[in-house]
Amino acid sequence: MMEANNFIEFHNVSFRYDSADSGDGEDGENVFAVSGIDFTVKQGEFVGILGRNGSGKSTLAKLMNALLIPTSGDVYVNGMNTRDASWLWEIRKSVGMIFQNPDNQIVASTVEDDVAFGLENLGVPREEMEPRINDALSVVGLADRRLKEPHYLSGGQKQRLAIAGILAMRPSCIVLDESTAMLDPKGRDRIISIVRELNLREKITIILITHHMDEVVDCDRLFIIDKGRIIKSGTPGEIFSDEETVVGAGLELPPVCELFQRLGLLGLRPGETVLTKEAGVEFLTGVR
Amino acid sequence: MSIKLEDIKYTYMPGTPFEKVALSDLYLEIREGEILALIGPTGSGKTTLLQHINGLLRPDSGSVFIDGEELTKKNLFKIRQKIGYVFQYPEQQLFEETVFKDIAFGLNRLKLPEDEVRARVYDAARLVGVSENLLERSVFDLSGGEKRRVAICGVLVTKPKYLMLDEPASGLDPEGKNAMLRLLKTFRDAGITVIFVSHNMNDVAETADRVVVINDGRIERQGTPREIFTEHDFLSGIGLSVPDVTDFFRLLSERTGVEIPDIITLDEGYAYLRDVYSKGGIPS
Question: Phi/psi of residue A44, each to 5°?
């Protein structure tokens, strides 16, 4: 059974792609993309998932909204088992997913139609669509682009449009799978601050998968996944004070954190980390 | 010898309602032996610029000179051999049965003897750190970072003098990204001039010898990373940023009133703080 405020639960989940979908192992055995995954995300939590290319992060993400069904084990979304096909639309509606490539998620010929697309599929009445589209576009800062063709938006704007399309469906959770990888610095900042706001204000559960360590320093919890298994979880402070595990998993410390880790010789206590610029300034001015 | 762009102008879809000036008043010299980073917001013209350098696009007006020779329709094929162009996400274009065949593919039309092909593939693989036992494997067995290095090998075998890479580290995990940045320096040290596009200011500061800032189809700044990354307001005004350590020391200076020299890399930041500590800490 699910605990009351758990939004997503993984129970001993393993997943293996069919041999038709991906390469067989050397000896013809299929390789598990993820195996033995047990984890939970609480309602309203902001969770970061880190791991090298091919570690199983995207597979994990797709298991969260029934794009993939576990080979063994069970995934529950708000109490609904993703195996149960009768919950499929309910699950897809409550867990929205943003992918890496902005160009692959646009379906309509105007910005507002693109947001309306998901609502039409859900059978939302016309009069209710209007305010929902307005709200969603203004949250992501695209209200003045309503009638534009998505083709003329920048990469960052396209990702914001994708977020608006999901927001209009009033999701409980948004999964971002390397959604900032192709964006310029401003586009990236904008996406991160929008999802942070959605988490704080609307209590939307956020699962952020990324290779940019500085994006996850404010997360409630982080998971490191390697070779399809969760090898470490904890607060950003707990994760990034364990440099050996982080680097061993193909990752790195956030830049400011790395500076202070090296500086450790000069006054950081074991297990102590400095994650943000603000914290760094405080540390330096505090010990002077 | 160098690459020179002189007074380049280029307009997309001229004479239609979608007309857009992509490059204008563009002068640029790329010096032999340097690593040049090209930065700019999305849609600023970075890729269009690269496409002019290897003749994929021809300017409406202005000229491109490669080692003193003007790029024309006639000499395009010959001159283009000096320029390697690694597209964004090049691994998406891998298709051959084996890593070896994929790397060698670009040599097919050159009709080289078999042992020359072999030598070039092995040299390229060695340079980028693709181990020999991978060469007979399927490209689908490789990791993301390995696939990208293989794709770059496919360009290196043509022995380019200038190598252009469009966001070579984008989408790679930190380990793969750091390996890619080291690789750019390896190329330079092997005598290949490197031109790369990046959205990551930390990477640019750690890797580039010179930086060109392009915005709205024009070059707005060029200089050393240190010269460029002291212009915080200008960069954030056009949607870019400064490296994280630069931003950190700027904040520290603001809060403490202490004047701090421009710091753009982690090594510099560490050296500065170590020095400050040896003198008794940040002065109050």
Answer: 85, 0
Same domain, B123 and B54: no
CB burial of residue B262 (10 Å; 0-12, 13-18, 19+): middle
Q: Which tokens hold the place of B55?
A: 């003749």
What's the CATH number where A126 sits? 3.40.50.300
Q: In this structure, are B24 and B58 located in the same domain? A: yes
Tens-digit pLDDT profile for residues A92-128: 999 999 988 888 888 889 999 999 998 998 889 999 9
Range of the domain at B70: 1-82+160-173+186-224
pLDDT 10s digits, B136-146: 999 888 888 88
| End-to-end CA, chain B | 52
Does the beta carbon of B247 lie under 8 angstroms from any beta carbon of chain A?
Answer: yes
Is residue B130 one of the residues assigned to a domain?
A: yes
CB contact set of A66 (below 8 Å; sequence gap of 6+): A75, A77, A82, A87, A88, A91, A92
CB A284 to CB B273 under 8 A? yes
Contact B143 A53 (CB under 8 A): yes
Confirm whether A60 is domain-assigned.
Answer: yes
B180 lies in some domain: no
User: Residue B71 gets which letter from DSSP?
Assistant: P
A10 within some domain? yes
Domain residues for the domain of A104 are 6-253
Q: How many Cβ atoms from other residues are within 10 Å of residue B59's Cβ?
A: 19
DSSP string for residues in A42-74: ETT-EEEEE--TTSSHHHHHHHHTTSS--SEEE
B236, closest residue in chain A (CA to CA): A186
Nearest residue to A41 via CA among A63, A23, A25, A20: A63
Residues of A with CB under 8 A from a CB of B: 22-23, 51-55, 100, 154-156, 178, 181-189, 211, 213-214, 247, 250-252, 254-256, 258-259, 262-263, 266-267, 277-278, 280-281, 284-285, 287-288
On whether the CB atoms of residues B217 and B7 are closer than 8 A, the answer is: no
Are B176 and A53 a contacting pair at CB < 8 A? yes
Residue B92, min C-alpha distance to chain A (Å)? 13
Q: What is the ipTM of this complex?
A: 0.87
- Residues B166 and B56 reside in one and the same domain: yes
Per-residue pLDDT, A285: 83
Residue A256: its chain B contacts at CB < 8 A?
A: 244-245, 248
Nearest-10 crossing angle of helices B114-128, B174-189: 120
Please state the domain count of chain A: 1
